[in-house]
Amino acid sequence: MKLSACVTAFTAAAALPAISASSQFHLSIVGKQGNDKVHYMLDWVTASTVNSSRLLFGTSADDLGSTINGKSAGQVTESAGETVVCWSALLANLEPGATVFYALESDTEQQTTSSLGFDALSKSAASKMMNFTVPSGEVTWAVFGDMGAPVQGHAAAVSLPALKSALSIDAAYNGVLNIGDLSYELTGSNGQNYMEELESITSQVPMMTTVGNHEYQYALSPAFAVQNYYRRFRGVTLGAGAASGSASNEFYSFSSGLIHFVFINTEVYGDEAYAALQGDGVTWKVDEAARTAAGTAQAKWLEYDLSRVKRSETPYVVICGHRPPFKTPKGLSEAGNRFAKEIVPLMSKYKVDLYLAGHEHTYLMFEASTFNNYNIPPIIISGSPGNNEYIREKAELGIDGFTWKTLIPKYGYGYLTATKNALEWQWGSAASDATHEPSSAMWKKEDEVSFPRQTSSDEYTAAGSAVSKPVDVTGEWANATSGSGAGAGSVSSDSGSGSGSTVQPTAGSSVESSSSATMASSAASLGVHRL
Question: Where is the composition biased (Low complexity) (predicted)?
Answer without folding.
Answer: 507-525
